[in-house]
Structure formats: structure tokens, C-alpha cells
Glucose-1-phosphate adenylyltransferase (Algimonas arctica), 423 residues
Amino acid sequence: MVQTKAFGSNRRLGEKTLAMVLAGGRGSRLKDLTEIRAKPAVYFGGKFRIIDFALSNAMNSGIKRIAVATQYKQHSLIRHLQRGWNFYRAERNESFDIMPASQTMSDDRWYEGTADAVYQNIPIIESYENVEYIVVLAGDHIYKMDYELMLEEHVTSGADVTVGCLEVSKKDAQAFGVMHVDENDVITDFLEKPSDPPTIPGMTDVCLASMGIYVFTKEFLFQQLKRDAADPETDRDFGKNIIPYIVKHGKAQAHRFTKSCVRSAGEEEAYWRDVGTVDAYMEANLDLCSLEPALNLYDKDWPIWTYSELAPSAKFIHDEVGRRGHAVNSLVSAGCIVSGARVDQSLLFTSVNVHSYSTLKRAIVLPGVDIGEVTQLTNVVIDRGVKIPNGLAVGNDAELDAKRFYRTENGVCLITQAMIDAL
């Protein structure tokens, strides 16, 4: 695991930092999974929500002040934050605040962009004591990162902003904000989703893409947000407006994810995933079922914190030929009952029931799902609380599946209760 190194008087930068997590996005490419919840509130990994990764990174990095800006379909997210992240204590100089978009005496509008989500909360942030730095985070990615190391590079470089970045292929870079850097990783240009992205010096097909993570001093950030808010032509967005302006008029430093990625035993790659599509969501969850998963969630030195429902242990019952409750290469959460069924290369969230003579393969099953008898489900994502009827078969007939459910180009079927009711 990456360890935070001693850094003289800057060793405890996290204690002087506010983590501002932007969690207002819908995530429309996840289709019906975000019909009733924001993307950061989508379930992941058996017991977590997507936002838990950014929040856990902040806490494990020593950041004691966290604020979460919410907007779209806020209830599920806010309820999770209240249940799972209510252990911060003011008497320990800690704070955890939820900042929904809200009407004020002088204004009545939603957050108009990522920068506006911070700008509207300047009066609240200014009330915090001993905050010198602000780390702006996206709340919808899966990764483990020590933000303290990024803070140290920001201070050392003397930059006005430090931007977290990934190395991606030139083809994939077209979906990101892309940085052109010099030999010292100073950003010389910042392009939002360019058709011909600039590559890293000395590399022909690798680009530096923004992770949506930014470090500022508090006062400098507020100056930039107020300047941007006064511009009627702006999109009020960090990637489109704030960062390009600083690149042009100040100093912007690129911080490579490989410098601060937290790797546990068995993790070879610098793991980061945007689970923004049903296919990507499926594969990232299935990553966890591998013999040696690319993302290790068993690391006690860098735990992922969340709200844990009270539920009994998972249970597997029946041991007859053709009716044996068992799971292979799978994750099965608390409260699940696998009754005379086979679960293969699948992930079951809390309190899932799988009844006799059924077979699941490559299935992501969200909490509270009840799967009837004699079902065959392959390449499926099943939304929370769905009741699968006896005898349903999915994954054998692509044309029929596409008529009944949302089916991706890779053949993954997303199943909701409304789709089942329409059968």
C-alpha cells in the first residue's frame, strides 16, 4: 500500500483541508439504475454505494472536514449519508455536511455546473475554521487514492491548481478533459473532450486525462469562482471554464494517479473505473469476483467505509442432485439465502433470495431481490427489490431479451420491477 511520507511542516495537510464532493449528477447512461437515485448513490460491490470510495479516500487521507453537494434524486443518497457517515464529531474538529441545491432569498436555481455547486456554498465553507485547502472530488468513480500525497505535490510545486490525472489511450481520451503537459507535468493546455487529444511528451498514444479531482488553496478558489460567476457566458464548470482559465493565466500542475494510488496486496494496476454505463458497471462489479481481484476490498489499512445493514449471515441450503445451494467465484452478502440454486461468477447484495432449481451466471443482483424457482439468468443486472417470477429465462434469446428488458451492446440485460410487471 502507498504510504504517506513525512513532509516536514506539511505532514498534516489533510487536517487543514476540506473535501468538497460533487454528487449531484444523474448518470443517465446507467439507464433505469438512476431513475430513482443519483449515480453516486448506486449500489456497488455487495454492500457499498459508489460515493463511499471518494468519501473513504478522504477520511483515510486524514481529511476531517467533508461536504457533499447533492442535487438530482437526492433522497436515497442523503439517507445513505445520514446512516453511514454520521460518525464525524464537531468536538474532534470534524464535520460532515450535506449541501443540497436550495432556494435563497436572492436566488432560486439549481446548481448550474460543477463550479457553481461550490460557488453557491461559499458562505457555508467560509464558516469552517482552519481550512486552508480545498480538494474538489467527483463522487461517482471507483478507486483508492491518498489525497495527502496530491496535497503535498500541490504545495511543493507552488501551483495555483493541481489536477489529478490518469494515463489513458488516445482513443479513450476523447471522452475526458485532456491535459497537455511539459517535462515537469506543468499543464500547458487543457481541452475538454477533444477529437484529437494531445499525448504525453515522448509517448505517441497515451494521454493524461482529468480525474475530476482538483486541489486549490481556499482563497484562490473563491477568487476564481467569484470571477467565473460574474461572467454571463460561462458554463460554471471546472473542466470547461475554471481549469482552462488558470492554465492560461496561472500555474496548473498535473498530479499522476500512479503517484498516490493505494495498492493493496495483489493489486498490480492503478485501479480506477468510471462505472457510468451498464456494461462498465457490470464488469467493475464482476472484477471483485476474480480469484485475485484488481481492486482489493479486504485491505484493513485502507478500508472502504459505508452503512452496513443489520442482517444475518448468508445461508446455503439443500444438498440434493439438481437442487444444491452453492456459489462459485461469487460474492454473497449478508442476509442472502441460496436455496437449492447455483450461483456462478455473480455478486449478490444484501438479503437476496434465490429459490430452488435456479441458475445465475454473471449476475449482479441488488438488495432485496427475490428470484423464483427454475429461473435461468445470465448476464443480468437486477435492480433493488425486484421479484423475478418462476421459470423466467434471460440470456438465451437476444431478440426476446431486447423486447422485454434494456439490453446493452454487450448483451447485458438490466431488469427492473416495471419491466417484470409488463411481461
